[in-house]
Amino acid sequence: MRVAKSIVLSEAERVQLTKWSRGRSTPTRLVQRAKIVLLAVEGTENKDIASQLQCTRRTVSRWRNRFAQLRLSGIEKDAPRAGRKPSVRAKKEAEIVRKTTQETPPGATHWSTRTMAKAVGVSRATVQRVWRDNGLKPHRTKTFKVSNDPKFAEKLVDVVGLYLNPPEHALVLSCDEKSQIQALDRTQKSLPMFPGRLGTMTHDYKRHGTTTLFAALSVTDGTLITQCQQRHRHQEWIKFLETIDRETVPEFDLHLIVDNYATHKHPKVQRWLTRHPRFHVHFIPTSSSWLNVIERVFSELTSKRLKRGTFRSVEQLETAIEEWVELHNENPRGINWKKTADQILEKVTRAKAALDKCLSE
Question: Less CB within 10 Å around the terminal CB: N or C of the chain?
Fold first, then answer.
């Protein structure tokens, strides 16, 4: 009589298997394998596991044994399958990867499946499979820029320290302005969405002026203080500082995280700050807008309210922004910053090393 192999898990393995078994984005086959192992650990027989998970006893036995032999890696990857290896891919895969990563096609900046298939002499499907299995996506790029601020580390530690450990009896506010927000009206009426058809918008538009949104996000509770103004000079920045002064608890110090825009450093702004000692300004490093969390709010405002909006005047635009801010403040969420300054510095150091290597080649 065959006896199923007993399995004992380490704590790390139990955590990972539980995560896989509950993951909404985890592949279905991996969810099933994780559940098989977890039930096996509890002493459940193979036939009962098969009945509970609605699979065959052979399936349960296979993945139970593979886990006992290879642990997590044994169930994360599919078992080797019998049959002849694809000869075309075996011969061409290295060339496809090399050309994708080291060359560009004539008259273009990146490869497509068609141009690569023609250059190498394979089918588009073969190119797609090679790119998928090697994690290559030549049609996509990621934007980045390594800061050259000589005081990068000093400013980074200062700002991240405010996110991770806000001072007592004080408010930490992430501040910035979103300038040149256009009041755009479409040239024709949009058609509504219904089953089987997308909503429509004309590709062209009429401009009806612009506004600038000044905003301050409370890091602790996520509430917003905002003000729309026609321009974004130092005069308007001082008006916004006065708004912040009025709308916050007078007894609290205010720590403002801002970028290096010249308006924020204007001599008249400096004199205003001297007269209001509860304001403390912290500048992020240059080319590091990702460090100013107010940018997340601007991105959300653009995608949820402005991008598809239709505004026939600046007044309509500003009203829409104010309504969006009011809804945001009804259910705000504080910023849960997790990365330490040391972790960020380590990543930036790696990015600089990779950039220097590319420049030297």
Answer: N
If phi > 0 it is left, if psi is from -120 to 50 it is alpha, else beta; for residue 319 that is alpha
CA torsion sign for 26, 28, 33, 38 is positive
Q: Mind listing the pLDDT tens digit for each residue in 180-225?
A: 999 999 888 888 888 888 888 888 889 999 999 999 999 999 999 9
So where are the chain's domains? Answer: 11-76, 87-133, 152-342
> Is 11-76 a CATH 1.10.10 domain?
yes
Q: Is 319 helix (H, G, I), strand (E, B) or coil?
A: helix
- What is the value of pTM for the model shown? 0.70
DSSP letter for 197, please: B
Q: Tell the CATH topology of 152-342.
A: Nucleotidyltransferase; domain 5 (3.30.420)
Dihedral angle over CA of 86, 91, 93, 95, nearest 10: -160
Alpha helices, DSSP H only, in 205-313? 234-247, 267-275, 294-301
Phi, psi of 34 (to 5 degrees): -65, -40
